[in-house]
Amino acid sequence: MKYRLSVLSFTFLAILSTTFAASRPEVKDAVRIVRFQVDYPHAQVDRISDYTKWTSLMRKSVLASLRFINKHWNICAAMEEGKPEKKDSVDCGKLQVTGEIVRDNFYRINATFIAERDPIRNTNVDATSTVFGVVQIGLRGGIFQYTNALKVLGKPSSSLAFEEAFFCYPGYSLSASSEKCLLDASDSSRRRVRRATKTTKKHKSAV
Ligand SMILES: *[C@@H]1O[C@H](CO)[C@@H](O)[C@H](O)[C@H]1NC(C)=O
């Protein structure tokens, strides 16, 4: 399951390389990317073409749902190396949403975002849960049953498909445990050389 997200890796490696910053510790946490799917088995799929901005409507709605969950449970991760984001204006870990008609009257939404690691924390009380757990509860609680244009999707099915994968910034490789990123050998030897030079200089000036 963990390594199946080949399409994801393209998209997110692009994002990761644009936000890459100069400081390079030897070990970093890997970026956790999750994708979940919500199925709508009673959708009026023939009406989707009535909406010219369907994809953007879908993204806005899913974003609103995830932000709602995120008010109670910290699920959306800020980009580690990007600008710190204001809590209220988070894009929920660069949320991306796609949809497809699976068959007649069956529509599926895929949502992909950079998530916090489990256990995630409640924002008000001292409690923990998992990203899967709180999204599943949200789904069963009706959080993905939309109003306005998206109501043509109807009632979603209550089972949630969920996948996750871990990625590293360029210059790092995923460790065997798959949740840590290790600085690539060539980079770490360069760092060692630089550090050695600094030590020598310090020593000289002390003398
Ligand atoms: C949704 O996700 C599934 C499995 O991860 C994938 O097979 C499918 O192509 C995706 N659909 C879209 C429209 O992204």
UniProtKB/TrEMBL annotation:
Lineage: superkingdom: Eukaryota
Lineage summary: Eukaryota, Metazoa, Ecdysozoa, Nematoda, Chromadorea
Organism: Panagrellus redivivus (Microworm)
Protein name: Dirigent protein
Signal peptide boundaries: 1-21
Keyword line: Signal
